[in-house]
Design goal:
The chain contains 7 helices and 4 strands; from the N terminus they run ααββαααααββ.
Amino acid sequence: MSPESTGQNEHYLTVIRRGFRTWRGDRPFWAGLFTMAGGLPIAYFPYANMHLGNITLAMSTTAGAGSLIIGVLLVTLGLTMWFHSIVRVFAGVAAILLALISIPVANIGGFVIGFVLALLGGALSVSWAPGEPVDEEDTEEERAPASVAVAAAAEPAPDDLQTTVAVPQQAVEHGATVPTEGGSRRAG
């Protein structure tokens, strides 16, 4: 085993953390988290009792069932964003609409806390796009020369060192085969 190999020597928490990071990167994680966090205060506050000394303040309203439904739907939409990210745009629009409906129905949207979190989660879900897949062929050795070339191109060369290189090109008839390193290809 080489000293660069870390496969067997990794701690199980490191493996779990990397797996979670990979899972989180493939879906609108923060959108789902904010949407679920927005649904909890919307569903909780209409059924909560607040104690101020000897005074009990009940925040329940006649729309308690409506706020419970809105809160449960927001939590469900957050889980949908996580586990079925293909419908992220629908889930985001639905979360935004439910957040707006929660203002008159559920104690000003869970005292504005749930409204803002659900609105933010829905907006993040609508705006999230999956990343471009990384080619497995690209390795560190292949990327190193490109990064050196980019760094060299970033700094302009002094005027006395700038040169022009001409690359000769051959004229090839349409349909003719041109030999290359790996075989032949058609030109034109």
